[in-house]
């Protein structure tokens, strides 16, 4: 079967604008943007993808940055002792009584848009600004997931600061990454004064597994702008998927590093008998020793939590679900190899069920009491005071629990109380009496007094979303999938996993199904530490599942009865079927690390130097045409061409990012090749 890229037959409408009609090239001479044509030298049914072991560059140290929605931090390890993970220094500032192994994801820019500070320093400085002065400063918080929710993410996408002013998102992220780069390098210089900085550090950035390719490319572009690495040394930066990082770390854990929630006395916070989980591990070890077969486990990450089934030896293997980002879910199989490689059995899925959902529920509660219009005005006119209020709520949110009996007091900033009286003509106590919210009162100390029922209600939408994503009532739920059958242990990791409300809900829902719910001691640092280990051995995840179907549009010879009549195109006496979707990789297809999909191209015209080929994607596995419902243009493949020479492009779909390389076949010399997912 002959296949011609959909951008072929110059001057014809084939999946792009039909307005131009230059002199057509012969059939098989594709038309693309910039009037670049290409001709395929491979049939539409491509040969079986080839697997090639990825080449690993040598680095002296790996620095991982866990860029979270609520909090962020970095850690590092040296190649000489890769499993000795060094956490970043304790952060200055913060809340009394709280361990500061991470810092809030807060960025403060001057009124002119210059970097001022990040983390606790940014939050505290903004808090101390005069209210009128604060209106001019740009303060960003919890902005990470904005690039995931953006439907048309580009390099020009804007982010809105607390005061309503906007700034390019790329610059905001670059400021934050540059802060971590400088902080980490300073610490490395103090520990190793003689270590050269250039090209000796491998950087790792964590992202949710459910992020699409544009969001991953956006983070890479921000890293380039921040100076972490250069485009010429792109391999110096790795994108790590959060649930994978959790799996990589948790497979190293031992029994004394775990808390088994199923053996905890309700309300006591103490562990009960650990013999049962210990015996489970010994049984798993013996099974693996006898069978030498791999074991399967389930990973959920992105909001604070992790699932896993089964361990070998005296170690646990699993994945993770973080509490700040949306829920990420993947299923991994621990392969019976000396290095304990992982194989993904279920593509990443998830939803917006992070701890930020509790914050939004609190904001909605304030809107019910004081009016949504007032809350919106207060946020805009008194941004620093709004930050104070969210900090006060965060402190009380951490103390919420299913067995708590007493009410919780939340301090309202004086600015809130005064602003409400001026706007409404009566005080906040009157507003509480008049509202329909019965579980929140005004305390004599001048605070909002929330009953434990009111606080727990704020958690319910988020927690229920997590449970419904797992429990197999709907056929689409996690435990209903065949790949997940037989899971015995569930590991909660990440920021939200510290919540007693979430722990109790997960244990109540899944304990009855025979799942053991386990929490690592360093629950909030699991992703970060796993990212360091991933940076030292990125080949640990050997096989991944493609989340989407990817391919290009091509022309095939028209076959009556097989192709729709409306796709018929006749040119120079030859009959073509337009808009055919030629698949590179299918959704849910297992793709090994280093496995390549190859295509060959040659210039269609003398002197042609460059070609752009549109890439399409969809969730379905059986799409036939690029015009089918759900199929959309998602990016462009760019190739530099040598005149009159054949160029072979090799695409890899088994890594955390889709990658492409190309060589001139006649000289075996590498040529420039790139995939752009942000050009739409």
Automatic annotation (TrEMBL):
Under InterPro entries, the record lists: ATPase_NBD
Gene name tied to this protein: HSPA12B
Question: Which domain of life does the protein's organism represent?
Answer: Eukaryota
Tell me the classification of the organism that encodes this protein. Eukaryota, Metazoa, Chordata, Craniata, Vertebrata
Q: Which SUPFAM superfamilies match?
A: Actin-like ATPase domain
Q: What is this protein called?
A: Heat shock protein family A (Hsp70) member 12B
Q: Region annotation Disordered: residue ranges? A: 1-53
Family matches, as Gene3D superfamilies: 3.30.420.40
